[in-house]
Design goal:
With about 260 residues, the chain is an alpha/beta fold. It is built from 11 helices and 9 strands. The protein has helices spanning about 20-25, 30-50, 80-85, 90-100, 110-115, 125-130, 140-145, 155-165, 200-210, 225-235, 240-255, and strands at about 1-5, 65-70, 105-110, 135, 150-155, 170, 185, 210-215, 220. Helix 8 links the parallel strand 5 (about 150-155) and strand 6. The longest helix is centred in the first third of the chain and has 17 residues, at about 30-50. The radius of gyration is 18 Å and the shape is globular. It starts with a strand and ends in an 8-residue tail after the last helix.
Length: about 260
């Protein structure tokens, strides 16, 4: 339901500037109405429990203590290729998180596409169990984020979703939301990211200024709020045969990125 066009770079590549970076830098000067709109958007997203994948699942029993969620990623994803240096695998991310937080409860959630065997990055349960107290493969990410104190990630969008829910985020890579003073950054972030936006500014830049949206009901360009409402209610959001076929092909071809990148 959204499309990004960037005439400078692209949001997942921190090695060069992007239009998103410009929007984030300029968001320090949001008007009062823009701040209110962004705050209301955050409230709508979190109240509806929306996330990137919107997959349901039961929350496992979680031990008491300081809980850290480690979201797994697709290891050949472009955001890791361009935005990570020292830590580039899920196993190393887990190990670093466990090493830095020996007294915490570490919860590992494999990436949905990796768990299905569609993408690179799988960790055997016995290997993950060396560093994770809980492996939450099928848990709803929204419920997990509401149950943890921190997120440690390379470049996962889960970090951005965590910020919107008031959860502390530590980044070992350089996702688009790192380097602006809202995250703890253990990886290298671009020196050009000097502005200090608020959370409302980051969200306004990322979800309001940067993408363009299409209403699946009317087929017309729309505001982000309309898309949030469609996703929250499921109103007339139908996926036709063509999109289902495209989705399956995308999954099959994702591990052969050299064919299309």
């Amino acid at each position: 339901m959204s499309l990004v066009l960037d005439n400078l770079g692209i949001y997942f590549d921190p090695t060069r500037p992007s239009s998103l970076e410009q929007h984030i830098a300029n968001s320090v000067d949001l008007r009062s109405g823009q701040k209110l709109r962004s705050a209301q958007l955050i409230a709508s997203l979190t109240k509806a429990g929306l996330s990137k994948y919107n997959l349901s699942g039961d929350l496992p029993d979680l031990p008491q203590g300081r809980r850290i969620l480690v979201p797994g990623q697709v290891e050949d994803d472009a955001s890791i290729q361009f935005g990570c240096s020292d830590v580039r695998t899920n196993l190393e991310l887990l190990r670093q998180t466990w090493t830095a937080n020996p007294d915490a409860i570490v919860i590992y959630k494999p990436h949905p596409d990796v768990a299905k065997g569609l993408r690179k990055g799988q960790i055997l349960d016995q290997e993950a169990a060396k560093y994770a107290d809980v492996i939450a493969t099928d848990a709803d990410i929204h419920q997990l984020l509401n149950a943890v104190d921190e997120v440690w990630t390379m470049t996962s969008l889960t970090g951005f979703e965590a910020l919107m829910r008031g959860v502390k985020v530590t980044c070992l890579g350089a996702p688009f939301y790192a380097g602006w003073g809202l995250t703890t950054d253990l990886g290298k972030t671009p020196a050009r990211r000097q502005s200090k936006p608020t959370l409302e500014g980051l969200v306004h830049a990322t979800l309001i200024d940067y993408p363009r949206y299409r209403d699946p009901v009317s087929g017309m360009p729309s505001a982000v709020e309309t898309v949030v409402e469609r996703l929250a209610t499921g109103e007339n959001v139908r996926v036709g045969f063509g999109l289902r076929l495209l989705s399956k092909l995308q999954g099959l071809l994702a591990s052969q990125a050299w064919l299309w990148r």
